Amino acid sequence: MHVLFVHQNFPAQFGHIASYLARHRGFRCTFVSEKPPGVTAGVERIQYRIQGGATESTHFCSRTFENAVWHSHAIFHALSARPDVRPDLVVAHSGFATSVFLRELYDCPIINYFEYFYRTRDSDMDFRPEFPCSEITRLRARSRNATLLLDLDNCDAGYSPTRWQRDRLPAVYHEKVRAIFDGIDCDVWQRRPGEKREIAGRRVPDDVRIVTYVSRGMESMRGFDVFMNVAKRLCDERRDVVFAVVGEDRVCYGGDEKFTGGKTFKEWVLLQDDYDLERIRFVGRIPPHDLARLLAVTDLHIYLTVPFVLSWSLMNALACGAVVLASDTGPVREMVTAGENGILVDFFDIDGFVRTVGEVLDNPQAFRPLGEAGARRIRERYSLEMCLPQMLELYESVCGRSVGA
After folding, report:
1. For the chain, what is the mean pLDDT?
2. pTM score, whole prediction
3. Tag placement on the chain: N or C end, fewer CB within 10 Å?
4. Hey, what domains does the chain have and what are their CATH numbers?
């Protein structure tokens, strides 16, 4: 059997299942992306190159769709040049491109991965009134769903990583789209008793508590400013805590640059107050194994998000047995049950966060059962071992043939 995976990046959400099918089931797996060609873990990479895209003269509301068409055509062109690629199944991310053009190239089932359907109300766009969306940005959100709607109509089946994300899709498509998480590799993300208490190679004394915060970028969508307010208050109140901030000084989601006067959101936040940067340590982006070691020794992990795509960092922290304190928002509640495998506080409740962090740091062992329950939930529901059979069953359901379990 030959499976073709389509994603702008590699390995993205598909790398683990592609390598599994290639190495353990003898499948031919091909992955088309913008990354250079080659072979990784038995998966052949084909590179596509876009030849154009939206410009300033393109209507603001249609730029996302214009870019998606250029990506989609480039994918079609790259695969047309490879007549040996005749897949039995196409699995494609929907959003940056559409797989509808591939219907003209292949007579096989298509499964689409649906990550986020934009809404202008009760969503990321209106959750933080201090960072309001402009009228044109709200209008654009309506048209940004065009690619997803094309794929929802075109695909044979689809899936989203969480029920919350699936339920944002139009109700008419819910039966067509399953909720299947990508899967956490618990060989990497796990508790490690006896791991060195270090932050970026610097030893942390046993009587000093470690609090972690992880985000790809420093942005309002992931509550970076809220976290910094909490960290500032705690640094002022106690001397036995150090914060490790993992991520890059960039904005991955949202329009923070509209409010920062040309500065990055991190720079803008740091100008708002006097922060102790000796105890609030920015360590940048670090390799997965190093991050796993850090999450395994943290006394508390703070995760914040508006109603938006759930971060893998939350799942990784849970898998590492970290005690998790998170914002009480829709996507988080699906993974964290307050008092069972974590702690939830209202996103805007700075006092509540400061008070709760203090309680955990005063007696971290009393909260260890929450971390243990979090790791157990990942192993039992969201590990690769649990998610991979669900993914394979989805493949079987659209192909009408067994692909192995």
Report:
1. 96
2. 0.94
3. C
4. 2-183+383-399 (3.40.50.2000), 198-381 (3.40.50.2000)
